[in-house]
Amino acid sequence: MPLPRPLAIISHPHYLAHDTGGGEHPETPSRISSLLAKLKASPFREQLTFFEPRRAERHWLTTFHDEHYLFRLEESALSGKTYLDHPDNQLCFDSYEAALLSAGAGLTGIDLLEDKENLVFCAVRPPGHHAEANLALGFCFLNNCVLAARYWQQQYGRKRILILDFDAHHGNGIQSGFEEDPEVFYLSLHEHPTFSFPGSGYAEETGTGPGRGATLNIPLPPGADDQMVLNAITRRIEPALAAFGPERIIVAAGFDGHRADDMSGLAYSTALYGKLGEYLADWAQRYCQGKLLSILEGGYHLESLGESAASYLNALSNHSTEE
Ligand SMILES: [Zn+2]
């Protein structure tokens, strides 16, 4: 494939209207505005095409979330409540619409991938990987990655999906969505749950029932650096991928493991996200005809969020793949 490869970026101005109350809350509109500004000034800006998402339709939301929860979320936002389920999960009148557009980005991205795009990055908020079927958690309301995987399976018949989550935190909602499902493999690298939110993601959690073996949690100690991640890739992740053989890969792309980001004790460098991009470009080529969907999760230190995402996307666009 000729280099560099084009990148489709999905984002929406309404993501900025999701107001988390100002003050000390780390999940701010400026995460998206500064990230997009960084991409638009990047050396690979010529490769970028920008798209807007649709709203995720109700019948896709209910492939994971309970009807009652969806009403509770909508009613909380529209009636002027300031949070849902826990004060961490701040919302405002516009938050329901923002959440629908955040979940919809993955669906729009999959439509683009099943048409002629190869690399799609969803620059969205609110994030999704902590959201449970009936619970808002960790700034998340709708589980964007779970809904994308269900859509890929049910709309396009792509059955074997890998969700690789490199956010600093365990994606408890993704794990619970697919714990019993042998066809969606959830693989998460995160700070050890003894030290970190949300307190799940122990190595012993490997799936249940028919899904046993289709969950791989790799908890890392506080202070874990690039080399520990690279070792985990060669020793654990590559063999797991080869054994599973994904038809499609979704990346829960959180950048809060960066050493400058105080939301975790991990100590990743900006360059590590470039290495992750190189591996993912290779895996997309080897398993998925070059197709890859990445959905933003965390990342709260604005400068390192922008630089890390740019490093990741630059590698996706420019890395010479092995095959
Ligand atoms: Zn996180």
Describe the structure.
With about 325 residues, the chain is of the alpha/beta class. It has one domain (about 5-320): Histone deacetylase domain (Arginase, Chain A, 3-Layer(aba) Sandwich). Helix content is about 40%, strand content about 15%. The protein contains 9 helices and 10 strands. The strands form 2 sheets. An 8-stranded parallel beta sheet has the order 2-1-5-10-9-6-7-8, sandwiched between helices. Strand 6 (about 160-165), helix 6 (about 170-180) and strand 7 (about 185-190) form a beta-alpha-beta unit. Helix 1 packs across helix 9 and helix 4 (about 95-115) packs across helix 5. It is globular, with a radius of gyration of 18 Å. The mean pLDDT is about 95. Zinc ion (ZN) binds next to loops.
Note the main attributes of this structure.
323 residues; alpha/beta; Arginase, Chain A; 8-stranded parallel β-sheet; two-stranded antiparallel sheet; 9 helices; 10 strands; globular; binds zinc ion
Query: What is the rounded distance between the termini?
Result: 10 Å
Mind telling me the CATH class? Alpha Beta
Give the oligomeric state: single chain
In percent, how helical is the residue content?
25-40%
Kindly provide the radius of gyration, computed on alpha-carbon positions and rounded to a whole number of angstroms. 18 Å
Outline the low-pLDDT stretches. none
What is the number of strand segments?
10
| Main β sheet profile | 8 strands, parallel
CATH topology, by name, is Arginase, Chain A
Q: In CATH terms, what is the architecture?
A: 3-Layer(aba) Sandwich
Number of helices: 9
Query: What order do the strands of the largest sheet run in, or round the barrel if closed?
Result: 2-1-5-10-9-6-7-8
Shape: globular
Q: How would you spell out the order of helices and strands?
A: EHEHHEEHEHEHEEHEHEH
The CATH homologous superfamily corresponds to Histone deacetylase domain
Pfam family, one: Hist_deacetyl
Family: Belongs to the histone deacetylase family.
GO biological process, one term: epigenetic regulation of gene expression
Domain Histone deacetylase: 25-316
